[in-house]
């Protein structure tokens, strides 16, 4: 039994696949301009990698695989930059008030809400770091099911896995996430 060999036709990519890829990206990124940029990057990367296309998957499946890597790269990039931002305090630089706080910049209310927000942001950073440490497929399935709340059937169809396989992956991802969060968040 011979398998069908698929061909690439980049002249039709925008017409045939742009909307699908955009909807795929927007479901994972939730930022319109970034989703458009990732689709463009996908097309560009596809053009550069045409020689590597073996024809074993359909053109769309191949482009979606490239887009998935672009999305993962995006999350890795933004997560590697978190925590590197430097907090700068505003002081008068010269004159008789040199070194004093600029009164307009001083926070007016240091209440529990600010502490909760900071703690939530730190928790999100720790959780995202743990998700990024999961095997790629585990992270993707976990995000799709738990964060994006996609239907099991849709995830299985998109990733070409069975529902029992999906639930095994979810279980393993949650187990690894629990351990990672215990080691990196709850012990602090």
Automatic annotation (TrEMBL):
Pfam families membership: Sigma70_r2, Sigma70_r4_2
Keyword annotations of the record: DNA-binding, Sigma factor, Transcription, Transcription regulation
Transmembrane segment boundaries: none
Annotated family: Belongs to the sigma-70 factor family. ECF subfamily.
Listed InterPro entries: RNA_pol_sigma-70-like, RNA_pol_sigma-70_dom, RNA_pol_sigma70_r2, RNA_pol_sigma70_r4_t2, RNA_pol_sigma_r2, RNA_pol_sigma_r3/r4-like, WH-like_DNA-bd_sf
Domain RNA polymerase sigma-70 region: 14-77
Example GO BP: DNA-templated transcription initiation
A molecular function (GO) term: DNA binding
Protein's name according to its UniProt entry: RNA polymerase sigma-70 factor, ECF subfamily
Gene3D superfamilies: 1.10.1740.10, Winged helix-like DNA-binding domain superfamily/Winged helix DNA-binding domain (1.10.10.10)
PANTHER family (alphabetical): RNA POLYMERASE ECF-TYPE SIGMA FACTO (PTHR43133), RNA POLYMERASE SIGMA FACTOR HI_1459-RELATED (PTHR43133:SF8)
All residue ranges annotated as the RNA polymerase sigma factor 70 region 4 type domain in the record: 126-177
Superkingdom of the organism of origin: Bacteria
Organism: Lutibacter maritimus
